[in-house]
Amino acid sequence: MYELIISTLAATVRLTTPLLLACLAGLYSERSGVFDIGLEGKMLFAAFGAAAISVVTGNAWLGLLGGIGISMIMSVIHAIASITLRGNQVISGVAINFLAQGLTAVLGLAWFHLGGHTPTVPDSGRFTPIIWPYADQIATVPIIGPIYSVLLSGQNILVYIAFLAVPVTYWVLYRTRFGLRLRAVGENPKAVDTAGISVTLLRYRALLITGFLCGIAGAYFSIAQNNAFVNNMTAGKGYIALAALIFAKWRPVPAMFATLLFGFLDALQIRLQGVPLPIINVAVPVQFIQALPYILTCVLLAGFIGKAVGPKAGGIPYSKER
Asked: Mean pLDDT over residues 130-138, rounded?
């Protein structure tokens, strides 16, 4: 039973990684006052770009850079539409999501002729698990052994980067001048502008960070967690990340715990598929088990998280007074 718990927690960590990265990405953009519904589309573009480049080059790092680059380009497009042109931020994000779903499938079919998928990424083009020193020897030690050898060891580098991004984000937001200005521009952009600080530049920088983190999250899907790109492989994780961000009330450490909750539920639904319930000895339909993370999203957003007040200037384009 203990080994089952540890293996479930290890799966939770792996499934949490893209959610956590996307949640932190949304935190930067929304703290600056820009709603970003397009997290899903950015991740999907990054997943396709990373897989395509890794297939061609056989280099995982080049694939990761490609995924990050494509995601940041999408962030710039969103920034131009919502900041420079002062368009509707929600519509811009939804457009990116629709574009990603259609364009990745079309390009995949045109380039690889595999129904929109990419070929299998070679081992050299993937991020493989990192085994910590003496993991095999310590595995037999009671209690501590499985934690070290299964939960902490055996994860790929993007998992460690995702969880390291939490304290880094906390430090950036609450211990740096940039973070102070970023939080201020999401609450009162007029006051920031009056102080001689460019609201536009701050929001562009925030969205570039958003694109960077979404790029890592998307690449994780296709060249770390899996070994190819398949159509719509993000499967709504960008929307779940937004729900977790609201659940965490736009704070980095609670965001980690919120995404861990969703990741645990995702890991649990994998474990429960086909397993009969005790007492009644009847297996729950697979479709219901698979829907558990999304049901939790709806329940939390229905008001069970208390009052969550976002940045006051969120979703409102800023126009400098002349």
From this structure: 85
Phi-psi region of 106 (alpha: psi -120 to 50; beta: other; left: phi over 0): alpha
- Per-residue model confidence as pLDDT tens digits over 34-79: 998 999 999 999 999 999 999 999 999 999 999 999 999 999 999 9
pTM of the shown model: 0.91
Quote the distance between the C-alpha of residue 138 and its chain's center: 32
> Do 15 and 266 contact (CB within 8 A), yes or no?
yes
Amino acid found at 252:
P
**Alpha-helical segments (H) within the chain:** 2-31, 39-57, 60-79, 89-112, 135-138, 144-146, 157-175, 177-187, 189-194, 199-220, 237-247, 252-272, 286-290, 292-299
249, two tokens = 């009330």
What integer pLDDT is reported at residue 282 of this predicted model?
65
Q: What is each CA distance from 110 to 54, 56, 106, 291, 313, in whole angstroms?
A: 17, 15, 6, 32, 42
